[in-house]
Amino acid sequence: DAGVTQSPTHLIKTRGQQVTLRCSPKSGHDTVSWYQQALGQGPQFIFQYYEEEERQRGNFPDRFSGHQFPNYSSELNVNALLLGDSALYLCASSWRLNSPLHFGNGTRLTVT
Amino acid sequence: AQTVTQSQPEMSVQEAETVTLSCTYDTSESNYYLFWYKQPPSRQMILVIRQEAYKQQNATENRFSVNFQKAAKSFSLKISDSQLGDTAMYFCAFLDPGAQKLVFGQGTRLTINP
Lengths: 112, 114
Prior knowledge:
Chain A has 112 residues and is mainly β. Chain A is built from no helices and eleven strands.
């Protein structure tokens, strides 16, 4: 039973560029949430997708956008990258909106 | 807005000892969930233990147990008979079912020494 898978593992981008991160939820899960974890900090909630719609959003600018596909997988897009966007991006999945979250190993994004 | 505070940035104990990690939180909600997550160097966030606020009984999972004090808004994690594999960052987290998002503390880096 595959858990939450994220790709790529690592990514290096330049300021101003755009990036897309991908997440496949655990088998049987239909809800995907994204978190940003800066170095030495706890994760911060970006947004959550359920039934292909954004259901909740944290305090992140519109440069951060996402999508959920019919197979429940999800993408996180960040436009106009800033140095401060350098972080570990964690994807978490669950069944419906109120069950325990299962996290992936994250994508380490470095913006230079 | 809910906040979660972990006042111990780092802790270090010897193998087989017992260690307690502290967490306090602030909320006006009466129904919520609290979690402890472990994040080893592999980066994956692993659920250690979960507590529902409406349950008075403290949750226990093998060597891991919590001391949940709802009135004091305190949620500490006790690790008994600590093992080298317990070395990791530990995060306390709060979930408001209505908001459907986890609010994490800053984390405690726990090192188990041989």
